[in-house]
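[PROTEIN RECORD]
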Amino acid sequence: MPVQSNNDWDPLEEIIIGTADNCVHPTMNISTHSFIYGGEDYEDIKHFDGQPIAQWIVDEANEDLQGLEDCLKGLGVKVMRPDPVDHNQKFSTPEWETTGWYTFCPRDLLLPLDNMIIECPSPMRARYFETRAYYEHLYRWMKEGTQWINAPKPILTDDNYQLEDRSEATLVNKEIIFDAPNIVRLGRDLLCQVSNSGNQLGFEWLKTILEPKGYRIHVAEKYYSFAHFDSTVLPLRPGLVLLNAGRLSEDWYPPIFKDWDKIWVGEEDLHVPPANTGVAPCSPYIGLNFLSVNPELVIVDEKQESLRRILGKHGIETIGLPMRQARSMSGGFHCATLDTKRKGSLEDYFR
């Protein structure tokens, strides 16, 4: 099968790695504020509007992505990259105009499930056409038998967002909206996180598509509202999950993992990467954003020495690689990749 990916731990065979080329700070509208800077005041971020990202940051980010590519190829993994996109170019709908952002994080907008891939309806206007960077791959996969589904495009008017109560998700439940990393893939079970980047309507739509195919949707709400779930809930293999102790606790975690062994890691266990862009577009927990090569091996930021020791105690080997701009670019090794093929079939881990 051209696409075959059901979880984050089966042995990795093919992957897309992003690029920092042509990235910009996106137009500073309410969708950008809500998604990237949901905890910040507008006065502290308005100067980013459409500005280039410093070339030295781009260069370091690309160097580290190339190092990741070289490492994965050395492990026998096939690596693909996005097509070039000029993110500085403006585009519009009848309701708004914006620039793009980047193609650093292919994980965000494409959701592989078995031999199917879903284009996700991002809450961010700057990402409206971002998946065009992957059309060469998407068309090839479709011609080879992969089911390619595009979720309904939201209109993304201002009333999709609220910034009055930051203790709640800034994305409201008006249109079908979700990013792929809001969904933790566990074979036939999908844990779907309500947050600033995914809402109930999004998962209701996903349910209409996936439940007839034998999937079960589990909605996780009020655990962590800022953005994605892949620095909060990280399954390592069937029966073992790493959980972010800064956001979850032994009394408060998704109940689907009740019978799994749990590794608890908090901010005190992490090296916090610098935010070289000034105001950080993601949290200190980006250091938890690792990529599993197989159930016994993960690729981790080389600075995360404590995390590597913790994983080692559970029989998981680590490869440390540089990811110097993870916090500046809002993406670690999991965000900056999309595993399109893993050796394994669609399994049921909970029945």
